[in-house]
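Lay summary. Proteins are chains of building blocks that fold into shapes, and those shapes determine what they do. In this project we predict the shape from the chain. Here is one chain we studied, written as its sequence of building blocks.
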Amino acid sequence: MKTTRITALAAIGLVAGLSLTACGNDSGKDTSAKDTSASSAPTESASSSGGSGKAGSGSTGGGTTTSGKVTFCRTADLAIDAVDASPDKTSGRIDVTMVNRGSATCSATGFPGVDIKDADHTSSPVDRGPAQPRITVLKPGAAAVFDIAYDIDSSGKSLTSPTDILVTPPNETHTVDLKWPAGAKPVKGSYVGVQVYPTHNK
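And here is the predicted shape, written in a compact code that computers can read:
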């Protein structure tokens, strides 16, 4: 008799356990479905914030875009000119202006690539100055400017004779050859101390 009673109780316990397990599985399926639908809901894209603004090699790069729609300015769409802008007799500075002559707004953000050609037919790359790029967006007809800075040689013993400035706009590969500005003061020492700074709106 005892054996029959124990067997019956065990059977009841097994049925109850299976019933609870089935309920738990149904609950788990509902929760999983809710989580999946929540994770697949659309969210705002982070691309609208653009890039970090840091310049890449020969640029930006850094390169950035505005709202994911503004592309970098192409060399062919820029009118580029260089003028002497030295503020005094010791600090040499050349301002290079880039005007967007294209039909669409573009970004000129970052460091341009700059090389200086010398009368001895050598070409020297210019190092970047200690500055962070700023967002520089150009509407059609708008201008951006960047500076080339150096120390002026007042001794008459400069080791350089610059003739041209080779400019590659930020995030571009096509270069423009500009004449060294008339009236620009001699570069002190060599081209090692010359620095280029990132673009900014004029």
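What the prediction tells us: The first helix runs from residue 2 to 39.
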